[in-house]
Amino acid sequence: MKKADFSLLILAVSLVGLNACRTWKDISTDNTTAYFQFRGKPEKVILYRYQQDGELFDRTIFLFNQNGQLTYKYIKLQQPKTKIKDFTSQWIYDKNGFLLIKLKDNKKETFVNDRYGRVKKSYFYQHPDSLPQLTKVKYKPKKRMRISKVYLADGTYYSKGISKYDGHGHIVYSQFSIPGYDSIEETWWERDADGNTTRSKMISNEHTDTVYVYSSYDPNGNVIKERYVDEAQKEWIKDYAYRFDKVGNWIERTIDEDGYVRTEQRKITYYD
User: What does pTM read for this prediction?
Assistant: First the structure.
């Protein structure tokens, strides 16, 4: 398998994990301080990512409200050859803390929630004048299953997603498919007693390969090693090293990807 394809599979595994909900009743954990594993009550976080040569790759600003929910995200790319260099996202909540609207540049997504704050429907607008793409979500509590179906603006049924959870609300299985096409992705997760993913497996028939990811953590739940293995037993290893502030959040992280070393730094401002 080519390294480019291997990298795409690794990215897909990460995105599936980031977009999947972590608890059964509250599925909005991908935009909270808990999801980012922050300690204390961060108000503002600025993330700087540097390339191996020390050049700044990008800068990201995160703003959180006092409930620990992400309200604003701004990404500034530092690459001179990149045409689009700025990306802005905003999250708007109701008085119960349920997500109502997500804005990303000119795109907009509105949400209809149940009494737990779980999304029942969402309407995605590609641009202000477009018709919405509809997502319908159903929950099967006895099977701990979440089923989502996506319909295009003209009403055409486009895709289906299935997620299953364990007794602690952690996702253990996910499937994405496009009916009528030979396109499907499946991911399985295994976790330790703290809910950290120790092993995951992803199958994608678009890449005709299977990727396994083995992860280990420090006592605070920060990942310190990830080992990616494909069907041909080719490996890609990431090692992580950290420097922490007084609250216990990392403010510098070094990532060694098979000899390619890059650094990330965070400047964190906390609520009083």
Answer: 0.83
